[in-house]
Every structure is written in C-alpha cells, then in structure tokens.
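Same chain as my last thread, 146 residues:
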Amino acid sequence: MKTKIFGIIAAALAAGAVSVGCTSSSGGSSGSGNTPAAAPMPAASSFTAGACRNAADHVIALGEISGRLQGKTDIPMADRSALATHQEAIRTMLPKVTDTKVKTPLQTLVTTVGWTRLRLDLQSYDPALLDAVAKADADTRAVCVR
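reply #2:
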C-alpha cells in the first residue's frame, strides 16, 4: 500500500514539475503576468458541502497568500510556515475525497505549494511558482464555489 501511495505522490510531483516549469517567467520582482488578476476570495460558506467546504479555509488562505505575495522575490518565514500548514491540512484530507472533480484540483494545489516550498528551501525560488499556486487555487475555487 505504501509503495502505491509513494508512486502516486511521485507521479503528482512529476506532473507538478512539468506544469510549474511551463509557467516560469523571466525573473525579477515584477511577477510573470501569467496569473489572473486577484479576485476577492469567496466566503467559506460559498464552497459546496463536503470536501470543498472542509478545505475552504485552507484554499482561501492559500489564495490570499499567493495573491498578496505575487511577484515578490522574498517570502517571509511566517508566510512560508503558513504555506506548509495549509498544504499539510489539505494533504491530510485527500485520502477521504472520492470525487475526482474535487480531488484533482486539490492535489494540484498541494503539489504546486510543495514545489514552491522546495524551491524556497533550496534558495532557487522564482515568483512564477506562486503564480502557479494562485492558478491552482483559482482552479480549485472554480470547482468548489457555486
């Protein structure tokens, strides 16, 4: 069972690497311009019942963090910690999510946050990584908010 889970995680990380790599920018602190304009975050109560509602606070928080830090080249430690907290909360919910229309965007969100955190740790961060988080977050909200 653990081998299967690790295989799924490896595949998700590989897919995330490809999608993050495709959104890279020319660098700098002005952002990539590939992210849609930050829209106001919906209330948690507007998320559909079930897995979406359970993840709502974390999805909203990740959307706010990625929107606020868009284009920044220096991410404060408090925000790095918040990224980890919200990523882990969603990750622990994933095994219970049975609807693939909901599970897939949540997995993508977890993966893009993971790549962002890894690149921050490796001191090879690129602002396009948070653009990818913002896109994954918006995709999740598009599925979850009715």
